[in-house]
Amino acid sequence: MAGAEGKSRGQFTTRLGFILAAAGSAIGLGNIWKFPYLAGENGGAVFLILYLGFIFTIGISVMLAELAIGRASKKNPVGAFAHLKGGKWVAVGFMSVLTGFVILSFYSVVGGWTIAYAVKTATGLLSTTDAKAFGSTFGNFVSDPMEPLFYHGVFMALTVAVVAKGVDNGIEKTCRVLMPVLFVLLVVLCIRSLTLPGAAKGVAFFLEPDFSKINAGMVIAALGHAFFSLSLGMGAMMTYGSYLPRQTSLPGAALWVTSLDTLIAVMAGFLVLPAVFAFGFDPGAGPGLTFITLPAVFSKIPFGAFFGTLFFVLLVVAALTSAISLLEVVVAYLVDEKHIARRPAAIGAGAVIFALGIPSSLSFGIWSDVTFLGKGFFDIMDYLASNVLLPTGGILISLFVGWVVFAKVMDGDQGGIGQGFRWAKVWRIVCQYVAPAAIAWILISGF
Ligand code: PFF
Questions:
Q1: Which atom of ligand 1 is nearest to the CA of 390?
Q2: Residues 404-423: pLDDT tens digits?
């Protein structure tokens, strides 16, 4: 993957390289940790249907819009809006950078949990087979004031280390090996989960919608998660798009990344939800769901400690490839626009984001009674990002492409999409009307 330095902006060497990097950004904690518990909290199959609907209409359209803005401008988000239009639109770029701060602050806390769990599974966490014990282990871990902070720091340090060096071939090559391994492991673990006694109830919960239970909160959650999961609404795909070679088809790339991301989320649903029901957990248990139920599954399979450790290591990798893209947005801005060298930019931004993550981490323990509108700090950051900032970014990016710079992003000679795109008219209508109206309606009804 190329660095973002102004003069020698790099490029992805191959289409596959880009797709793996962008899929690495999209596929992360959102798919494997967040999607199953959101589905669990929001009516299972109803959530799945809403999510798929949003992904393949609004999500894929905004994905294409971001990639096209990136490649047509070859700039970080702030530079991209300035280059293509300027004026007030530049504020959308700044909002992207801000959103990168907010998301990475709490994302890194959970990234830390995955490292901790890789260590714990390797060192005897699974020596019990009492499924309920994993609930208290998780509760004790996240409510401890120091241990999760330590791992939050480790995760952030890893992210900074990679971004500071420039997101080079190392990551791309690592993703090329580890993403397929993650996929194979998910298949194996899905099979194990689906064949547990009592799994059928979980499958039914995930696949049989009960529309009588639908409410506005579910629709907002599904849309917010569509954005979060595809890394949309905050310029990550714009930044990656700016490194794309001219001959790569943008609609094809958008379709690939969207499809891979969706596939992994659905597989994670088939892994976690049947196990939840098989072991009698509450599907609405929230953020702890994956960290409690998966150890329970691993403790019941041969070589469970081995598979469990491997799984959490791969979850670390999945989280890391996403976190890198979050920090890259901030760093690309500091490097391109503020002319700060990449290394201090990465370290400085990483330190500030780490500090911002501290209250999120503590909100699971000693600060759990510090709440606003009934939500703790972690939930506030998550809500603000997923349900406010990303959708707002999505509206503005859609309007920008649909109304302001459509000709530029279609102009193949300037790095845009090119004239061969058969769906251009439909896509424009989605960007002009459908996506902004749908997102705005959902946002407003949420308040
Ligand atoms: N898409 C990532 C996930 O599903 O875990 C999270 C994410 C990464 C969101 C990068 C936004 C972003 F810019």
A1: 11
A2: 999 999 998 888 999 889 99
How far apart are alpha carbons 361 and 106 in whole angstroms? Answer: 8
CA distances from 33 to 131, 173, 371, 422 (A): 18, 24, 23, 36
The C-alpha atoms of residue 252 and residue 37 are separated, in whole angstroms, by 30
What digits encode the pLDDT tens for the residues 145-170? 999 999 999 999 999 988 887 756 54
Predicted local distance difference test score (pLDDT) of residue 167: 57
pTM over 0.85: yes
Nearest ligand 1 atom to alpha carbon 230: 1
Which tokens go with 96?
Answer: 């992207």
Residues recorded for the chain: 447
Q: What is the pLDDT of residues 225-248, one digit of tens each?
A: 998 999 999 999 999 898 888 888
Of 103, 104, 324, which is best to mutate to test ligand 1, by the most ligand atoms within 8 angstroms of its C-beta?
103
Give start and end residues of each alpha helix (H) in 13-146. Answer: 15-26, 29, 35-41, 45-54, 60-73, 77-84, 90-122, 131-143
Tell which phi-psi region holds residue 303, choosing left (phi > 0), alpha (psi between -120 and 50) or beta. left
What's the token pair of residue 127?
């020596």
Residue 177 has pLDDT above 90, yes or no: no
Residue 216 has a CB neighbour count (10 Å cut-off) of: 10
Residue type at 243?
Y
Whether 11 and 243 have beta carbons less than 8 Å apart is answered as yes
Ligand 1 pocket mutation, candidates 163, 231, 260, criterion most atoms within 8 A of CB: 231
Q: Which residues contact 55 (CB under 8 A, 6 or more apart)?
A: 226, 229, 230, 258, 261, 262
Written as six digits, the tokens of 118 are: 């890789």
